[in-house]
Design goal:
Layout: H1 3-7, H2 19-30, E1 39-40, H3 41-48, H4 52-64, E2 68-73, E3 82-87, H5 89-106
Antiparallel strand pairs: 1-3, 2-3
Organism: Corynebacterium hiratae
Pfam families: HTH_34 (PF13601)
Protein name: MarR family transcriptional regulator
């Protein structure tokens, strides 16, 4: 291994790094809510412990970066709508790389 390669640590993803976004990505990833599988917004809010306004703001940012996608299933009233959240393939890859970078940092690489 070249000397320079040992001194380079994997990069943290600045999109995922803030704790609330990391919590969201970790929850979706660990639940398997990627590409073909989805998680209800209400379930995601419950599992992350984030208030609705915070969760919505963070999802908007993640969606703008292409890391998650959202779909709305319309009910008879807006209160009965269901929002589904999915970690995209790009989001899942970014999350895995971010976790690997954190592991490398903690192992002193």
């Amino acid at each position: 291994m070249p000397k320079d390669a040992r001194n380079q640590s994997p990069e943290l993803d600045p999109v995922i790094h803030p704790i609330n976004r990391l919590r969201i990505c970790a929850t979706l990833y660990s639940a398997g809510a990627t590409d073909d599988r989805q998680m209800k917004y209400s379930t995601l809010a419950e599992l992350t412990g984030l208030p609705a306004d915070t969760l919505s703001k963070q999802l908007k940012h993640l969606e703008g970066c292409g890391y998650i996608s959202r779909a709305r299933e319309y009910g008879s009233t807006r209160a009965k709508d269901t929002v589904w959240v999915t970690l995209t393939e790009a989001g899942a890859q970014a999350y895995v790389q971010h976790v690997e970078a954190l592991k490398a940092m903690t192992e002193g690489l």
